[in-house]
Design a protein that fits this description.
With about 450 residues, the protein is mostly helical. The protein is built from 20 helices and four strands. A hairpin with a 2-residue loop joins strand 1 (about 150-155) and strand 2 (about 155-165).
Length: about 450
Amino acid sequence: MSVLTTKYQPTKSELLASFTNGVRPDEELFAQELRVQKAWAKGLAEIGVLRGEELLKILAALELASEQIKARSFEWREADEDIHMNLERFVNDQTAGLGKKMHAGRSRNDLIATTLKLHVADSTAEIQVLIQELINKMVTLAEQNLDVIVPGMTHLQNGQPIRWSHALLGHAWAFKRDLKKFRATHDNALAVMPLGSAALGGTTLNIDLDGMALGLGFQSPPNNSYDAVGERDAVIDFMQASAHFGAHLSRLAEDIIYWSSAPVGLVQLSPQWSTGSSIMPNKRNPDVAELTRAKASLWIGDAHGVLTLVKGLATSYASDLHETKLPYLRVARDLKQTVIVFGHFIAELKLNKTRGQELLEQGHILATEIANHLTDAGVPFREAYGIVAGLVGLAESKNIQVHQLSTEDVETLTALVASTSLSELSFEASVEKRQNAGGTALAQMKKQIQQLRL
């Protein structure tokens, strides 16, 4: 006997509901959504739309919803389309229909706009703490290695000696700038509350929007309801700040990948925060840095995607705005996890100080010191540059570094370089001459550490 099996084919209405609903991303917004729902219910009670006992029942039902969502026992229904209608249905079930009164004077348009702004504010507050923790770990690592001098590079070519901590903290300063961007995003998200805009023209209820805004943490109620329901500046600001941070974090990841590579060997990866090869037992791979570099590309792409999505929309609300939630929530979630993991990864890096000394003997990195000596003696810098370039060429022909030339070698090309200056050349002396603000001298490094650490 043969048994015929057929796959279930969804109805047209089910297909449409599956395509248009926003339940899945909305699940991550529940904490902020419940704050908004409770604030509106209290406002309705203040103007008599809800009686006191009705308010208490609604608030209790919303609290129960919160508990069930946290416990992952809340019943999410795609047919209800979004978090707003799921909560209204749940309150109805718990209170014999009081959920039907909750939506008076408002719209899902101003609800989601308000909820998203609160979520952005909460996310940026958390991210600021995480980034500062990352900076603090970098500062600690810098402090532990203040004595390590390495070749500083431009164009990935050795140029002048610097403290390795100077290179590391250069990234920390970039993260400090990112902190300002996230702080501004947080403050801008809480500048204007969309709630009270209703669908587009404003609520008809004489509800206390000023007090509601203050209670939710906003500076003011809507300025223009038509704009408020359709603007997603908080999300765009967040995505742009994340893209900037991702670019900076990716550059640090790239430096660590370079420093830890076999040809360089300056940094040793922690076995706890790197992985081995499936076939080569001699390797440690910088997966955290590589994945961070990749994730940053996706954050940048999502930032462009959201900005492109909103740029062609007419004023007020459109369903296109649903699609801003997924990339925003993905980046917010991904960025937090990445910063936490990267902080552990970088905190356990080890410097190979012996290898650092070896790297100093590549690239004639004291050449600029000789040129500076000549300039101090009154030689025009461009002439001094040419003289030292000749000395570098002479050193190359002898397969030594320019600072290793003997006095006799130097005198074959110029008599302007004092023999005492050659004997005084050292990597330590070179870095200590950089005493001005932002320099790589020890005193300046300690000043940077003090400024960066909170």
